[in-house]
Amino acid sequence: MYGAHSGRLSYCYGNDKSQISAPLMSRFAVIDIPGIIHQKRRKIIFSKYVLPKVLKRMSLKAEECVVTEEGLNAIVELHKNTSGIRDLEQAAEHIAANALYQIEVDHLTGVTFNADMVRRLLS
Question: Dihedral through CA 121, CA 50, CA 97, CA 82, nearest 10?
Fold first, then answer.
């Protein structure tokens, strides 16, 4: 079981929720994503939950900070040996901060992060 806490929202993922005590389980909103591999699960968690939460916190719209499929693959690849969601959330914060900087300084309407940009930014 891996987890991370950020503010009032916690993320946790694992393969066997039967090992979690009932009092702890009552604090989670469970999202079952059956039949997918670890990396695909991380891509879904990053794109559907982690990145939108970070964008909202930084007052960015989804169209102002876009990560391509190849960029998403690069994020997951760079964090394949890490446990938990904390590293993915930090990656999202770096990406969103970079987008915000480019929007403010370069007067762009949005930034699209491909695999090369992700690797340069997060490596």
Answer: -30
For the chain, helix, strand, coil in percent to 5 are: 55, 15, 30
Cα 49–Cα 82–Cα 46 angle in degrees, nearest 5: 15
Return the CA Rg of the chain. Answer: 15
**pLDDT digit string (tens) for 17-54?**
777 788 888 887 777 666 556 788 889 999 999 999 99
Question: What pLDDT was estimated at residue 1?
Answer: 43
H helix runs in 1-123, sequence order: 22-25, 38-45, 51-57, 69-78, 86-105, 115-122
